[in-house]
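As a warm-up, study this chain.
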Amino acid sequence: MGFFERVYEVVLRIPRGKVATYGDIARACGAPRASRQVGWALHVNPRPGEIPCHRVVFADGSLSDGFAFGGKDIQRGLLEAEGVTVGGDGRVNLAKYRWTCGQMQNKQADAAQADK
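Now compare it with the structure written out below.
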């Protein structure tokens, strides 16, 4: 499985009402320094509407100017429809809404052990 496919697999696991950062996704994919590549993968998302790219935010909780589906306002609307509050400064409270991807890493480790 290539890097982009791993990104999509991780992003698909972010629950409704939660967000993850680009760095969180990169770490869950085993490439902690690949945050920008995560952004590129999401920008060329082959399955919009299925892969919830709107649930991925910057490390400070801010929304993406270049959000692939139409910018910050669309991303804000999608997140708020799922119960995620976006502050007046355009940021999500990561202490409240962050999904840490730890569950995904554990599942990947379990799957790797099962393959041995």
